[in-house]
Design brief:
Largest sheet: 8 strands, antiparallel
Radius of gyration: 17 Å
Shape: globular
Order of helices and strands: EEEEHEEEEHEEEEEEEE
Number of strands: 16
Number of helices: 2
Mean pLDDT: 88
Distance between the termini: 30 Å
Low-confidence stretches: 1-24
């Protein structure tokens, strides 16, 4: 039997053994309110030029209700993919999905999931999605934003006002389809005053 070592450091439990599992550390949104730590599944091939349709095709049957962990396997069509933790590059507000996905850039889709924690209920929040190309955001199982055209990524993105973040955990699912060239996605939050919400904690484990 392999030994399992339990250590305690800085309040984190670290298990060293057959699984070598280290619980995900908490992070925060950046100074502009962008989520920079995500779990990613992809790339997932889609038909050439099908972005506007592919964003509505559920490559995973219950995509709105995704709650993965890093290392989990996910069946997509006839393939099995693995959820992995990804992080935006320093000073970037978006995830470069081409890099995170291992170099694939054309006719592909990916899912990003983050667990966003609020200290108290927040009403009149604006969700902003940036994507290259097509994108969709679910918040706590409900679709809040969808974009069906091709474009380059931009911080302004698409906005959905009047959203409520619940006290505690909020599950954000970002789906991005790319047709050609660059492939990227981002989500951030604005308060009712239009300023970025920067006091949100992000986890990459449920």
């Amino acid at each position: 039997m392999k030994k399992v070592l339990l250590t305690v450091a800085c309040g984190l439990l670290v298990f060293v053994g057959a699984s070598s599992f280290v619980p995900a550390a908490d992070s925060k949104v950046n100074e502009e309110g962008f989520i920079t730590d995500w779990l990613m599944l992809g790339p997932i091939p889609v038909a050439e030029g099908s972005g506007a349709d592919a964003i509505d095709l559920k490559q995973i049957p219950e995509e709105a209700a995704l709650q993965p962990k890093a290392g989990e396997k996910q069946k997509v069509g006839d393939k099995e993919l693995t959820w992995k933790a990804v992080k935006a590059k320093d000073k970037d507000y978006y995830i470069d999905l081409a890099v995170a996905g291992g170099g694939a850039t054309e006719d592909v889709a990916a899912y990003l999931v983050a667990y966003v924690f609020a200290e108290a209920e927040m009403k009149d929040v604006t969700v902003v999605m940036s994507s290259n190309d097509q994108g969709k955001v679910y918040l706590n199982g409900t679709e809040v934003i969808k974009f069906t055209e091709t474009r380059t990524i931009d911080k302004e993105g698409d906005k959905k006002a009047g959203v409520t973040l619940t006290k505690g955990r909020n599950v954000v699912v970002l789906k991005v389809v790319n047709e050609k060239n660059d492939w990227a996605g981002a989500v951030h939050f604005l308060g009712k005053d239009g300023k970025p919400l920067t006091n949100l904690v992000v986890k990459t484990a449920p």
